[in-house]
Amino acid sequence: MKNVATKLMMICALALAVGMFLAAPALAKDKIVVGFSQIGAESAWRVANTESITSEAAKRPNIELKFSDAQQKQENQIKAIRNFIAQGVDVIAFSPVVETGWTPVLKEAKRAGIPVILSDRAVDTEDDTLWVTFMGSDFVEEGRRSAKWLAENYDRLKNADKSSDVINVVELQGTVGSAPAIDRKTGFEEVMKNYPQFKVIKSQSGDFTRSKGKEVMEAFLKAEGAKIDVLYAHNDDMAIGAIQAIEEFGLKPGKDIIIVSIDAVRGAFEAMIEGKLNCTVECSPLLGPQLFDAVEDLMAGKTLPKRIVTNEGVFPQEVAAKELPNRKY
Ligand code: AHR
């Protein structure tokens, strides 16, 4: 008798547990579940971008964020997106580490009826119905702005006459195959075509990291030495790494070598105040509010614009001290 009672109690407990398990997804349905695949933490910019996304999600009680860090590997991002599809999230958002190779997984998301938002970086796919909107900076314009600033300010900074001299530029590119690396190179070259005195004598990827930026700049200096007049870095982190290499080589960054880079992170403002960096072109990582506004609009049945471009500025050394207290990243 005792045995029968125990068995009955066990069956009831099991039924209760199964019931709770089955009820859980139903409760979660009150929330919009968003799967976000982040590239990694390669730069101060990326860390600020992650913070903007996670803190904004935490502020919105109707949002449940599933966040995944891909450690700069496309295969990890594809795995994460497949996991989100298997979990049946409401929206997938991601910042693609490189431009190509996304079509199959985006088709899987489409077949599952899950809308995809591109955040920060674009993908290169023939079918643009595979994603609903792309929000983030205009990287080509950032390259143009860097080149314009350089063309307009080089002579003043170096007491030179650009119409007669050859000006040797070295370029630290971002991650190979990534949208910002491709576009920032394109935009820079587009403007520089009008200023043939500027010659890019070396151009190599520093993978958007400080350590790689330093390493590649060391190699540039070993090969070209004091011949280098300008450094154009696709992000501030690589420029900051390169500044260290320049100092160790015995040259003065910001004076012997004019430096322009992109992002406008706090570290760049500090380097400008010390006179070691000449200009930073803004690329804002604060995409969290925009992202979750778009998610909510989408879930409310609204049509999103295909492209949402971030407004950004250019900050030369002269304004650094005044601007630093206003910087949010
Ligand atoms: O996609 C934006 C770029 O990625 C930022 O410029 C860079 O710092 C980051 O790693």
UniProtKB/TrEMBL annotation:
One of its GO terms (cellular component) is cell envelope. InterPro entries: Peripla_BP_I, SBP_2_dom. Its main location: other. Gene3D superfamilies: 3.40.50.2300. Keywords: Signal. This is LacI family transcriptional regulator. Residues 1-28 form the signal peptide. It is found in: Cell envelope. It comes from Pseudodesulfovibrio indicus. GO terms for molecular function: carbohydrate binding. Belongs to the bacterial solute-binding protein 2 family. Residues 35-302 form the Periplasmic binding protein domain. Pfam families: Peripla_BP_4.
